[in-house]
Amino acid sequence: MNFTISKRARTLSMALVVLGALATVAGVIGDHSDHHQRTWSALLVNGFFFLGIGLGALFFYALQNATETAWSVLVKRVYEGIMAWIPVGAIVMIVVLAAGSLHLHHIYHWMDASLYDKASPNYDEIMAGKKAFLNQPFFWIRSLVYLGTFVLFARWFRKKSLEMDGLTGESLVRTHLLTYRRGALFLVFFAVFSSTLAWDWLMSIDAHWFSTLYGWYVFSGMWVSAMVTGVVMVLYLKRKGYLPQVSNSHIHDMGKWVFAISFLWTYLYFSQFMLIWYSNIPEEVTYFQQRINDHPWLTWTTFAINFALPMVLLMSRDAKRNPRFLIGVGAAIFIGHWLDVNMMVMPGAAGHDFHHGIGLLDAGMFTLFLGLFITVVFNALAKAPLTPVNHPFLEESVHHQI
Amino acid sequence: MANKVIYAVYDDPEQLKDGARKLVSGGLKVKDVYSPFPVHGIDPIIGITRTRLGIVSFMFGITGAALAVLGIWYFNIFDWPMNIGGKPSFHYYQNVPSFIPVTFEFTVLCAAHGMALTYLIRNKTLPGMPARNPDPRTTDDKFIIEVRTADNHGRSTQEIEGLLQGTGMVEFNERAC
User: Fold this and answer.
1) How many C-beta atoms surround the C-beta of residue B13 within 10 A?
2) Average pLDDT over residues B19-43
3) Mean pLDDT computed over every residue of chain B
4) Which of A90, A176, A342, B35 has a 20 to 30 Å separation from A360 between CA atoms?
5) Read out DSSP for A156-221?
C-alpha cells in the first residue's frame, strides 16, 4: 500500500514551515551579535542535528544490511525516507561552512589566517601546530568527501531497495547479497567519517580543546535521534492505517533501540565528562565550565531528558509496547538531543550571545527545519510502497515475534 | 482412582504444539512441556504466564546500587575522606562522578548474579540438585507434553490419548504418581 500524505499532515508541516520562518525572521532581526554570529550558530545547530538524523538512519540501514537482520525489513522504507533528508542537510552544512570560509561568521576561529602568521599579534602557537590538519583546503576536501559519500550511499541503497521490489528468485538474492556487502563497506567508511566529521564541524569550534571521545559521543547522539525519529514515524504511519504487518514486536524492538542507544549516549557523555572532571587540566576543563557553569539549567535538563527519562520510562516491556507512551517519550528525547547539539555548538560558537540560552531564534529555526524535514521525508515515503514488495527476509520479518 | 501422570512423546516441536493446542481446546490443563531447546510460541498455548524475572533483576539492581552508595559513602567519605584529585571530599555529592563507575558495576553484578541464582533456585536446577526430567531423551531429540490427571478431574487417560490421536504423537506413556 502506498503512503499518501493526508491533507492535515500537509497543512501541519506547511504551518510549521511558515511559523518557523516567521519566528526565525523575528529572531534574526533581534540578533545584534557581531556578524550575526548567533544566527549562523543556530543554522549550524539545526543543520547538523537534522543531517545527523539522516546519517543515523543511513548508518542503521547499513547495519541492518551488513548483519542481514530480518525483523527490520518491514520498516526499512521508513529509514529510506529519513535518509532522503541527507542531500538537503548536506546543502545546509555546505552553506554554513562556506560562510565560515568567506568570513561571514567566525564560528570556526581557526579559519582566521592571521593565527598562523608569526609576524601577526594574533599568532597562536597551538593553532599553528594543528595546521597540518586544520587548514581550509584539507577541511573542504574532507567535508565534501564525507557529504559525497553519504549522499551516494544513501541514493544507492534506495535505488537497490526499489529495484528489489521487482525481482524474484536468484536475482533477488544476488541483489540482496550486494546490499549486504555495500552495507558492510559503508560501515567501514562511517566508522572513520562519523568521528572525523565531528572533529571538523563541531569540535573545531573550540579549536584549542580536544577530546578523544568526542566523535563517539556525537555519533551516539545522531544514532539515538535517528532511532527516535524512526519509531515515531512508524507509530504515526500505523495510526494512519499503514504498515498493517508491523506488530507490537517490531515496535518493541524499535523501542529497545531507543532505550539502548540512550544509554550508549549517556555512557559516552559521562565518560568524557568524568575523565576531564577527574584530571582537572585547565585547557580541558574550560569546555565544561563554559557549559555547566554558564548554563547549568540547560546542561542538566539535557542530561535528565536524554538519560533519566528513557531509563525510568522505557525500562519496562509494557512501556515499549505502548504507542502513545512511546511517542511522548520519543518526542521528549528528540528535543533533548536537539538541546544537546545546542550545548555542543552554542557556548563555543556564540559565546556571550548565547547568554540567555535557547530563544525565539532557536525555537523558530527548529520549527522551520522540522517542517521541512517532515515534508521531505513524507514525500520520499509516498514515492514507493511502504512495505517492501520483495525481500529475502520479508516473510521472516512479518512473522517476527518476541 | 489413582492419579496418573501422562507423557505424550513427539519427534517434532510443531506437532507437539498441535497436540498441546488440541488438549487445551479440549479443556485440559497441560502441566508442562519438556524439550531439548526452547519451543517458540509454546508459552501462550499451555498458558504459561510471563516471567517475573525482570522484576527480580530490577530489585537486585536497586539493592546493588543502594549497597554501593552506602559502602562508598562509608569507606571514602565518612570513615576516611579519600583525596580524589585534590577535590573537596566532605560530602558524597562532591566526589560523586568518580563513584558512578563502581556504583554501576556493583549494580550490574548484583542484578546479574541475583537473577541467575533466582532462576536456578526457582527451576530447582542449582548444581547438585536431582534432575526432575521425566525422560532423558528430551535432552536429545524428543519433545514431551506432561499432563496430570490430578489437574484434570474426571478425564480418563483413554480420553486424553484419544484427543492426541493423529497429532504425530510417537509414544503415549502413563505412570502412577
Assistant:
1) 18
2) 90
3) 90
4) A90
5) HHHHHHHHHTT--HHHHHHHHHHHHHHHHHHHHHHHHHHHHHHHHHTGGGGTT---TTHHHHHHHH
CB distance A278–B98 less than 8 Å?
yes
pLDDT tens, B71-110?
A: 999 999 999 998 888 888 899 999 999 999 999 999 999 9
Nearest CA in chain B to A401: B41
B97/chain A closest Cα distance in angstroms: 6
| C-alpha cell of residue A129 | 601546530
Taking contacts as CB-CB distances below 8 angstroms, the residues of chain A near B97 are: 270, 273-274, 277-278
Nearest by Cα to A40 from A360, A350, A344, A356: A350
Give A266-324 pLDDT, tens digit per residue.
Answer: 999 999 999 999 888 998 999 999 999 999 999 999 999 999 999 999 999 899 999 99
Q: Which of residues 218-277 of A touch B (CB under 8 A)?
A: 270, 273-274, 277
Which among A18, A24, A12 is positioned nearest to A363, based on CA atoms? A24
pLDDT on residue A356 = 85
Helices A86-101 and A37-66 cross at an angle (nearest 10°) of 140
B88 to chain A, any CB pair closer than 8 A? The answer is: no
DSSP 3-state of A373 = helix
Residue contacts between A and B (CB atoms, under 8 Å): 21
CA angle A369, A374, A377 (to 5 degrees): 120
Of residues A401, A224, A232, A251, the one with CA closest to residue A311: A224
User: Are the C-beta atoms of A202 and A48 separated by less than 8 Å?
Assistant: yes
Q: Give chain B positions within 8 Å (CB) of A280.
A: 85-87
The answer to whether the Cβ–Cβ distance between A280 and B84 falls below 8 Å is: no
Q: For residues A128 and A122, what is the distance between their CA atoms, to the nearest angstrom?
A: 11
Query: Is A317 within 8 Å of B100 when comparing Cβ atoms?
Result: no
Question: Higher model confidence: residue A216 or residue B85?
Answer: A216
Q: Give the 3-state secondary structure of residue B177.
A: coil
Best probe of the A interface among B100, B102, B108, by most A CBs < 10 A, is B100
* Rounded Cα distance, B152 and B30, in Å: 9
Strand order in the sheet with B171-176: B32-34, B143-148, B4-10, B171-176
Give the C-alpha separation, A2 to B90, whole Å: 64
The answer to whether the CB atoms of A274 and B85 lie below 8 A apart is: no
> What tens digit of pLDDT does each residue of A152-200 get?
999 999 999 999 999 988 999 999 999 999 999 999 999 999 999 999 9
Is the CB of B41 less than 8 angstroms away from the CB of A401?
yes
Classified by CATH at the fold level, domain B4-49+143-176 comes out as: Alpha-Beta Plaits (3.30.70)
Question: Contact at 8 Å (CB) between A180 and A66?
Answer: yes
Instruction: Express each pLDDT in A73-101 by its tens digit.
Output: 999 999 999 999 999 999 999 999 999 99
pLDDT tens for B130-163 read 888 888 999 999 999 999 988 888 788 888 888 8
- End-to-end alpha-carbon separation of chain A, Å? 25
Whole-model pTM? 0.91
d(CA A261, CA B69): 26
Residue A188 near chain B (CB below 8 Å): no
- The ipTM value here is 0.81
